[in-house]
Amino acid sequence: MQILAFDTSSQTASVAILRDEDVLYDTIMNTGQNHSEVLLPSIDQACGLAGVHISQIDLFACTIGPGSFTGLRIGLSTMKGLMMATGKPGVGVSSLQALALNVGQAEKTVGSMSDAGRGQGYLADFQYDQAGH
């Protein structure tokens, strides 16, 4: 299964293409430009460098927040457009859960936190169950 995943929930944007468990391409961008200016060119570059045509993507994944309202709208609109153009499914991923997954399978509770601006923060705790989920 080939997955195109992207995150537009914060100041940085990221794009990755995965084939099963293998990461074919990934990038993180912090150019100071709006996500609407960098997301589609980055997706095009990712497909080109990974040797994958957008029609070969089996699933689209995009962060659904918490995060920047405008960034989330750009990401979700892009995913919806790709889904409509290809007829392939999409899935939303919690920004904080994706951040917690970077720790790997841990026995203890993992806390994820991101900047919400204006002195505020987003925080969530995650814990793996016995099945490894």
Could you tell me how far the N terminus lies from the C terminus, measured between alpha carbons in angstroms?
Answer: 20 Å
Number of helices: 3
Domain count, please report it.
Answer: 2
Helix and strand composition category: alpha/beta
Q: What is the CATH C-level name of the largest domain?
A: Alpha Beta
The chain-level mean pLDDT equals 94
Q: If you had to describe this structure to a student in words, what would you say it looks like?
A:
This protein is an alpha/beta fold and 133 residues long. It folds into 2 domains: 2-93, 2-Layer Sandwich (Nucleotidyltransferase, domain 5), CATH 3.30.420.40; 95-133, no CATH class. It contains 3 helices and 7 strands; from the N terminus they run βββαβαβαββ. It has a 5-stranded mixed beta sheet. Strands 6-7 form a two-stranded antiparallel ribbon. Strand 1 (2-7) and strand 2 (13-19) form a beta hairpin. Helix 1 (35-50) crosses helix 2 (69-86). The longest helix is centred in the middle third of the chain and has 18 residues, at 69-86.
